[in-house]
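Following up on my earlier thread - several people asked me to post the actual chain instead of describing it. Fair enough. Here it is, all 210 residues.
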Amino acid sequence: MAKKNTRLHILDCAEELFAERGIAEVSLRDIISKAEVNLAAVHYHFGSRDDLIREVFRRRLKEVNTQRLSELEKLREEYSPEVIPTQKLLRAFLAAPFLMGKRDSGGANFFRIIARAHAETNEVVSEELLFQLKDVIQEFLKEFKKSAPAEDDTEQLMRLVFSAGAMVQAVLAPMKEQFIKALADTDFDNEKMLEMLIRFCAAGMEADGK
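Reply from S.P.:
Thanks for posting it. Predicted structure:
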C-alpha cells in the first residue's frame, strides 16, 4: 500500500473509532488494530496520538473552510458595496459542512465526533477547533454585523455558534429517523433540509435582541 493511502487509511479508521466510542475511549492500539498497521507506520505519518487526533479534525475542517471562504469571497464580489443578505451568508457558512456530513460515511462520522466532542473535554480538540475556525468565523462575523446586527459582539458570536449547533443536529437527524418519523411523516431530502436550516438560523441571526 502506498504511503499516502496508508496515511488516509489510518485517518479513516481513527475517525470511525472516534465516532463510535469517543476520543477518550480509543487508544493508539485500537487504531493500529483496526487499520492493520504497526506502530511505526502511525509514528511515521503522524508522530503521536495527539497529532493523529489533530489531523482527523484538520483534514475535514480545511476542506470545509476553504469552501466557506471561497463562497464568502464570491458574495463579497457580487454584492459590493451592498450588504450581503443574511440567508446568503448562512448558506456560505453552513452548506459546505452540512453537505459533507451528508455525502458519505466519513463525513457523517466526523459530525458524530463533533457531537461527542461537546460532551468530552479534550484540550487537543479544543485547540485544533479554535485554530481552524477562528479566522473563518471572524471573516463571517464582519458581514453578519452588517446584515444582522446584534446588541453586542458576544451576542453576534453566540448567534453564529447556535446556528452551527443547529447544523450539526440537522446532519445527525437521519440517525434519529425513527423518532422524527413518529412525529412527522417526511423524507430526508438534503437540499430541503438545508433550506429549512438556513431559514431557521436566519430568523435567529436577525432577531431583535431587545
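The chain has a mean pLDDT of 89. That should answer part of your original question.
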